[in-house]
Design goal:
With 165 residues, the chain is of the alpha+beta class. Helices cover 32% and strands 27% of the residues. The protein contains five helices and six strands. The chain has helices at 17-31, 34-38, 44-52, 102-116, 131-138, and strands spanning 2-4, 7-11, 56-63, 66-77, 84-93, 119-124. A six-stranded mixed sheet has the order 1-2-3-4-5-6, with helices on both faces.
Length: 165
């Protein structure tokens, strides 16, 4: 757990299903993708299994007991060497709590966790034109220009909010 004013950062574990639900609500609100994050919530056993896994990182930033920021990341175990990478999948801070170092604190806690699981890098994607995200990540790491492709899986249900980002 990391503490800084005015928030503290905690990693969610198997018994933190209620906080996980709050995190999903935050992501839905901040990204304006409520259906994606709250429309078909997974069951308690599924959530507990994810939160118990060392290959999934869920962090929350708490102001008192309120979730005001959060991060979801995956530990990707590499095949070519005995090492891992950590991919930050989602990062959000409530609009009323931005510009206070919360996102930076969440990333720094992720870097600490990454070191403890043998990762050599933490990486994250940003949408072109998302100036606040680009500025945040430019201040913390090295920019790489890459292309990202989504390949549809036949028969998978469509995600109508997917293209909002």
């Amino acid at each position: 757990m990391t503490r800084f004013e005015p928030c503290r950062i905690e990693r969610l574990r198997a018994g933190d299903g209620a906080r996980y639900a709050e995190l999903m609500t935050l992501f839905g609100r901040v990204f304006d993708m409520q259906d994606t994050y709250t429309g078909a919530r997974p069951g308690a056993a599924w959530v507990a299994e994810r939160l118990a896994s060392e290959d999934f990182i869920a962090l929350v930033a708490l102001d008192g007991e309120a979730v005001v920021g959060g991060l979801a990341a995956y530990v990707l175990r590499k095949f070519e060497r005995e090492r891992s990478e950590v991919y930050i999948y989602d990062l959000a801070v409530d609009a009323t709590h931005r510009r206070r170092g919360i996102a930076t604190g969440l990333i720094r806690e992720t870097v600490t966790i990454a070191g403890s699981v043998g990762a050599y890098v933490v990486f994250v994607q940003a949408d072109r034109g998302d100036s606040p995200a680009e500025a945040l990540y430019d201040g913390l790491g090295e920019r790489e220009e890459v292309l990202h492709f989504d390949i549809a899986v036949p028969g998978a249900p469509p995600d109508p909010e997917r293209w909002k980002r």
